[in-house]
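> forwarded from #structure-qc
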């Protein structure tokens, strides 16, 4: 029996999986890595060291578990949208500028929005220009690193860079392209050539393919580096959150994935294109579908910060947070520790804990962090409904689903049930499914069946309704002060 290989490059780790054509997991592997933050507001990955070497290390660990079973196809995904400038031969020229957690391009966002018009940008591309958009990151490169830009001919994201290293092909999937705002037209599914020439002159935009299309095969040099056989088909791949949605069956209109990870991310599948100024509107993973997407700048990143700050292990913090009870003893947290993405689009938003007393401990703070991200999920789902989304079925996925407390809090805050799929290992599992489909080995219908639901507690929900009102009032009440502090930090630490 042939196997499928899926590998995803995440923010803090690379993950891989080997599966059978029916979705049975044969083996998994993880390699940890870190984000480089050379200046406040910057977030970068070294593409060769983190992306390619991470892929190779994970693959070399997995292949011995395959035995004599061949790999039928390879699926890849990665964080995005990112901006990795490269030469015409595909050699990286600097570390990749990461997705919306990198906030260096705020000036360019304002300038491009003024040049083309906010409404026109959303109408053509589906999304407003924010720190998530690739176009302003390229404009930043031209302005601040002209020597790099002089040599830049190609643009990669994590998945397309892996495809290039594996196959030698230069190609980007349509979904990832729809997040290069304002370079891609989400109605015509094509590059906006006139804007691209103005924003990124000299850049050779890649040909486009759908995420599940085979775009090449493993070359001899890639085989030597990874242990893979030459000639194995490789699909175009896509951004990790969308591969993760595929992995848990979020493929029908009204389905919503709630991804619990370093950042909280939500994707709703749509039958028709919709846009909203506080959300990202993208094309889907498959032709004929569209998505509304929302993402918080931090979630698991805040809980990890608290873990490191207190020196505790997660199991201790979770039990202490559980004991703290709904409301965290009267604390409310704004989890904007790296600015905030949707629906605020404010890179200068800052974290805040309100209600602290000498009676509070680390468990209260940890619970307040979980509840603050849950309030953020509610805020984003309300924005999706305002945009015309249905939010019919919520599916929870990601490392944060372990232990049950976080998902319980989110369901209580939302007053909504969440479906729990049987496999929640992440985007690499969706990569394997897309590869299985491309190889004609699976239709994916029974790939990852649900194993249960998290039902809301109505009594806890009443407490959270009151706290949510406090949460929503905190940002406008403290925005000016947060912006002033952000400006002071920027002036002090400017490169």
């Amino acid at each position: 029996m042939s196997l499928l290989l899926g590998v995803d490059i995440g923010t803090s780790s690379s993950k891989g999986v080997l599966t059978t054509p029916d979705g049975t997991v044969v083996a998994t592997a993880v390699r940890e890595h870190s984000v480089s933050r050379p200046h406040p507001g910057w977030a970068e990955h070294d593409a060769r060291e983190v992306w390619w070497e991470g892929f190779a290390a994970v693959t070399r660990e997995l292949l011995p578990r395959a035995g004599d079973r061949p790999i039928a196809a390879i699926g890849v995904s990665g964080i995005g949208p990112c901006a990795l400038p490269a030469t015409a031969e595909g050699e990286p020229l600097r570390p990749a500028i990461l997705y919306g957690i990198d906030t260096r391009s705020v000036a360019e966002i304002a300038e491009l929005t003024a040049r083309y018009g906010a409404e026109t940008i959303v109408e053509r591309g589906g999304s407003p220009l924010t720190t998530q958009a690739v176009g302003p990151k390229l404009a930043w490169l031209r302005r601040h690193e002209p020597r790099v830009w002089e040599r830049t001919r190609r643009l990669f994201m994590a998945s397309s860079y892996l495809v290039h290293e594996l196959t030698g092909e230069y190609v980007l999937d349509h979904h990832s392209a729809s997040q290069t705002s304002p370079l891609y037209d989400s109605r015509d599914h094509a590059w906006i050539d006139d804007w691209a020439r103005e924003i990124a002159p000299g850049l050779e935009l890649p040909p486009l393919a759908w995420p599940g299309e085979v775009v090449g095969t493993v070359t001899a040099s890639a085989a030597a580096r990874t242990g893979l056989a030459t000639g194995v088909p490789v699909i175009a791949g896509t951004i990790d959150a969308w591969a993760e949605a595929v992995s848990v069956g979020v493929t029908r209109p009204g389905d919503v994935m709630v991804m619990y990870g370093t950042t909280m991310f939500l994707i709703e599948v749509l039958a028709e294109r919709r846009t909203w100024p506080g959300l990202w509107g993208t094309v889907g993973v498959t032709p004929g579908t569209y998505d509304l997407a929302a993402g918080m700048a931090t979630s698991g990143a805040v809980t990890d910060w608290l873990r490191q700050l207190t020196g505790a292990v997660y199991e201790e913090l979770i039990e202490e947070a559980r004991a703290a009870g709904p409301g965290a003893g009267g604390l409310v947290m704004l989890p904007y520790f790296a600015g905030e993405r949707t629906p605020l689009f404010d890179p200068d938003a800052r974290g805040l804990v309100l209600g602290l007393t000498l009676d509070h401990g680390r468990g209260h703070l940890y619970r307040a962090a979980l509840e603050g991200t849950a309030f953020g999920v509610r805020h984003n789902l309300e924005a999706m409904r305002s945009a015309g989304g249905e939010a019919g079925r919520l599916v929870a996925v990601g490392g944060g689903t372990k232990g049950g407390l976080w998902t319980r809090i989110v369901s209580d805050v939302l007053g909504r049930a969440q479906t729990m799929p049987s496999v929640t290992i992440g985007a690499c599992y969706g990569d394997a499914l897309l590869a299985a489909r491309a190889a004609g080995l699976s239709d994916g219908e029974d790939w990852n069946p649900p194993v249960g639901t998290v039902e809301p507690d109505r009594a806890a929900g009443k407490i959270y309704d009151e706290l949510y009102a406090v949460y929503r009032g905190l940002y406008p009440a403290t925005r000016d002060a947060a912006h002033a502090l952000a400006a002071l930090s920027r002036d002090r630490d400017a490169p």
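QC bot note: The mean pLDDT is 95. Residues 19 and 26 are 5 Å apart (CA to CA).
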